[in-house]
Design goal:
The chain contains 7 helices and 9 strands, in the order E-H-E-E-E-H-E-E-H-E-H-E-H-H-E-H. The radius of gyration is 16 Å and the shape is globular. The strands form 2 sheets. It has a 5-stranded parallel beta sheet, with helices on both faces. The chain has a 4-stranded mixed beta sheet with strand order 4-3-6-5. By secondary structure, the protein is an alpha/beta fold. It has one domain: 3-Layer(aba) Sandwich (Rossmann fold), CATH 3.40.50. The protein is 41% helix and 19% strand. The protein binds adenosine-5'-diphosphate and guanosine-5'-monophosphate (5GP). The site of guanosine-5'-monophosphate has 16 residues, from strand 5, strand 6 and helix 4.
Length: 189
Amino acid sequence: MRRFCPLIVTGPSGVGKGTVVAALVEACPEIWVSVSATTRPPRPGEQDGVSYFFCSELEFDGLIAADGLLEWAQVHGAARYGTPAAPVAAALAEGRPVLLELDLAGARAAKARLDGARSVFLAPPSWEELVRRLEGRGTESAATRERRLATARTELAAAGEFDIIIVNDRLEQTVAELVEFAGLGAECA
Ligand code: ADP
Ligand code: 5GP
């Protein structure tokens, strides 16, 4: 069985992580993407168990108490997000290429806990473009957007900690760079 290094993807809110991961999975359906638990409410169109496992604060406390999370973090000073540990272990045991999309704290923790994990920082072509994408998505209030942009400054300053920085300018190019970095060429269309 071929072994793949777990891939951890992070980057500021609005840089395009969700878009890039969706395009990567379309190109490489073998990839298994972890579904996180979160206490944030669903956005329109988001489905429980697909986008996230949407939890109450109490349910999230229960996951932590049961040692059910590989890592968790409070993100943007608001909701909590965490990676259910058992599905990751199962996907790795099956030999699937595993991908985790996490915030900065989660990426650091997961890198320390997952053997051989490789980390990717997705960076915007410019600060102005990041603001444009976040505003263009139109899913957050102005106050939430400001909080996410404040976090983004800290995240961008940490980009050098990652195994690779990929600038998400053209989507196709970003996906191609990820495929190459993760050694997924044979698995992808
Ligand atoms: P994140 O998951 O990092 O918060 P999203 O995937 O929701 O970001 O993307 C934020 C916005 O940027 C979306 O409107 C998306 O369509 C757009 N976007 C993503 N990647 C690109 C790209 N390479 N070029 C232009 N726009 C992009
Ligand atoms: P959003 O609310 O836009 O879906 O995600 C907000 C942030 O939470 C993103 O930076 C995303 O990478 C991060 N995130 C999503 N799932 C997890 C997780 O399981 N753990 C951690 N630490 N961060 C996560």
